[in-house]
Structures are given as C-alpha cells and as structure tokens.
Specification:
Blueprint: H1 15-24, H2 30-34, H3 36-56, H4 64-88, H5 91-94, H6 100-129, H7 135-166, H8 172-177
C-alpha cells in the first residue's frame, strides 16, 4: 500500500467568487433571436398580442365564446414570453435536467390545438355577436384572421420542435454548438 504523501496541495475559494461569475453569464443570446425558433416565437408574440388586444377592445365579456378566445390568447402569450426569456438568456442550458426539446414540442402541440379551437370559436361568433360593417365586427374579424395566423405559426413551430426533439438534420456536435435550436 502506498504511503500518503507528506505534502498535499489544497485550494479554497469563497462563495463570492462563484456568485460574480454566474451573474455576469446571464447575457442575451442574439443568435437565438435570428434562429427559426426565435423568429417564430417573436411572430407568435406579436400576432398573439394583436388577437387579444382586438378582442379586449370589444365588450367580449357579454359573449362566453370570446372569453375562451381571450383565455387562450392571453395564457399562451404569457407562456410564450416565458419560453422566449428562457431561450434568450440560455436558461435551458443551466436547467439541463429538464428535457427542453420535449417540453417545447409538447407546449407547441398544445398551443396549436388550443389556437385551432380559439380560431374556430372566434370565427363562428363574429356574425352572431356584431353587425356587419360595424367597428366590433371589423375588430372581431381581424382577431379571427390573426388567430388563424398564430395557429399556423404554432403549427410550424410544432413541426420544427418535433424535428429538434427527434434530432433530424443534426448530430450531437451541431446541436451542442447551436445551443439546442435551429
């Protein structure tokens, strides 16, 4: 059995040194904003904002159908903001124990399905809740149009997130370098 060496070199560090390094590492990743996921999320945020702003400017509380549209639009808009911040500041890399490609794909599938129902509900309720040619009719029609566009954006995002989850078109080295998004 080998003897324990007489001199042992140890190094200590204070918690303050480690805290300064992690606080400065929280920088926005502009590469994400230029990626397909980033562009789609920005599109979803802008179009989703238009949907709920157009509906909110009408007396939607009188019609239960628009309550559902408002719930879907505002809820998914807020969750998309959270995901955008997570990916923009690369928090998904720090929270490595979460399977982000799977979580993002499931979110996009659910968002697509919810926006399909919101689009159909909003479109079906336009004629029944306002006079044709009135300001409310035009706003609700525009909200239906933008709900359709957001639904398509979430559908495209679902396709891309499914490919990212399956790892189509990349290998381990490129997915590590790309930060997990295309």
């Amino acid at each position: 059995m080998a003897e324990f060496p007489s001199k042992v070199s140890t190094r200590t560090s204070s918690p303050a040194q480690g805290a300064g390094a992690s606080a400065s590492a929280l920088r926005p990743d502009l590469g994400f904003v230029r990626s397909s996921f980033g562009v789609l999320m920005l599109l979803q945020l802008v179009l989703g904002l238009l949907v709920w702003a157009l509906i909110a400017d009408t007396p939607y509380h009188l019609y239960p159908a628009y309550g559902w549209v408002m719930f879907v639009a505002v809820f998914l808009w807020l969750v998309t903001i959270i995901f955008f911040i997570i990916y923009l500041f690369q928090l998904h890399m720090k929270l490595y124990m979460v399977p982000w490609p799977l979580v993002f794909m499931i979110f996009n599938v659910i968002a697509t399905v919810l926006y399909i129902t919101a689009f159909i509900t909003c479109s079906a309720a336009v004629n029944q809740t306002s006079l044709k040619g009135s300001r409310q009719y035009n706003q609700r029609s525009a909200a239906s149009f933008f709900a359709c566009l957001v639904m398509i954006a979430y559908g495209v995002s679902t396709f891309f997130s499914f490919q990212a989850w399956r790892g189509v078109g990349s290998n381990a080295a490129t997915s590590q370098m790309a930060g997990g998004y295309a």
